Amino acid sequence: MGYIEGHSRDQMLLLPASVNDDVSADNPVRFIAAFIDDLDLGELGFDRSRPKRTGRPGYDPADLLKLYLYGYLNRVRSSRCLAAETARNLEVIWLLGGLRPDFRTIADFRKTNRAAFKPLFRSFVLLCRRLDLFGRELVAVDGTRLKAVNSRKRNFTRQKLAGWIKLADERIEEYLARLDLADRAEAEAEGAARRAAALEAKIARMRKRRELHSAMLADLVASGESQLSLTDPDARGMATSPKVGVGYNAQVAVDARHKLIVEQYVTNSGSDLGFLAQTASAAREILGVEQIDAVADKGYYKGEDIATCEDVGVVPYVVRPQRGPGINEGYFAKSEFRYDADEDCYTCPGGQRLDPYTRSQKPNGHVTIRYANMRACGTCALKPQCASGTRRSIDRWEGEAVLERMAERLAARPDITDRRRETVEHPFGTIKQWMNQGAFLMRGLANVNAEFSLTALAYNLRRAINILGIPALLGAVRA
Ligand code: SF4
């Protein structure tokens, strides 16, 4: 018995007579083609969406867009790899009608049209909305750190630079002292001249590096920035994620029904603080509802941001982080002090009344009122469990009522934090593991935003295919 044999390479019809025969009716490329052909690319902001009357014809942006969407859906993101696919991948040959743009054309298309990828992502969200794929009641907001094209060694903070300048000063001083000693030693001593030359070279190198670091520190101070990245100037050290090192922070709002991404963007902030209202309200708008619940983790607990949520039709759910010196040292938590809005006072665990006694305002306008009862604390038997000093005080943000309302909502829906985890971990897990999203390929905040829009669109597309199937999606585009 022999083996199954392929065709002879000299046979005239190795491939089917039509490439169409090789692409099944439920192949995702059929939906990619129909979806892109149905869009008004000019309206979305794509360059050259209308062909020029004169000059050499360029590639239709629709073709290059189809190629990118196919690539991101199939873990092929680099322009060189995409160019290779146009020559060897039957699905791509079908999708592009045999066109073979070179890698530079492919790369330039993504760069030139970077601002249009977010509207493209939104077009698919609107299609999913038409297909009733969103619950439109609850979104989970979260951020993930993604690596930039910038190594840790090429990222500098003011502190790091100041430390290196100080170290260089110390080293230069030490080398100069050693050089002085060598000078005073007998010039004829064996190897003295060689050692002196080596020290001088070291001092010169150290001075040069010190000069460079001083200039970088001066630039940082002048720009008002806290960090300087040499390869990708917009990338920042992500302190909360040491594995990522230098990178970006991708923010998403995910609808709880099918875990589809509704809103996404990339920032270079190392923290999630302050991004809840912005992300959730954009999701609310595109979902077309008056009000939406938004759940996020403790990293989003910021009073002003939570207050803004209520102003923009977002009902926030963020668990209060247990932080502060009281918690660290095991004293009574702030939540154990009851606030009375009518009397404007707190009642402490010892049953004593704490009244306001100071009011302070930070430069950002954040007003805090401090409550205490010095006399009661002085004789209190519970003080060892409550305070280390002479008294215990409680700070209250002026708008804290909004946080208290949120705490009541959270107490009424204890399951909501589990729903957050289930909802938001799905896209992040899929993007990082299944879609193999490693470091961003491009540099600069605007470019990585374009890249992440494509990633999020490919994730949503894969979800929609899994939920509805290609024929239903094709039907929706053609309707
Ligand atoms: S130490 Fe002061 S605040 Fe704490 S329980 Fe006693 S009286 Fe109340």
TrEMBL record:
Keyword list, A-Z: Coiled coil
InterPro entries, A to Z: IS1182_transpos, Transposase_11, Transposase_InsH_N
Protein name per UniProt: IS1182 family transposase
Listed Pfam families: DDE_Tnp_1 (PF01609), DUF772 (PF05598)
Residues spanning the signal sequence: none
Superkingdom of the organism of origin: Bacteria
Coiled-coil ranges per UniProt: 165-209
Domain Transposase IS4-like: 247-461
NCBIfam families: transpos_IS1182
Domain Transposase InsH N-terminal: 19-111
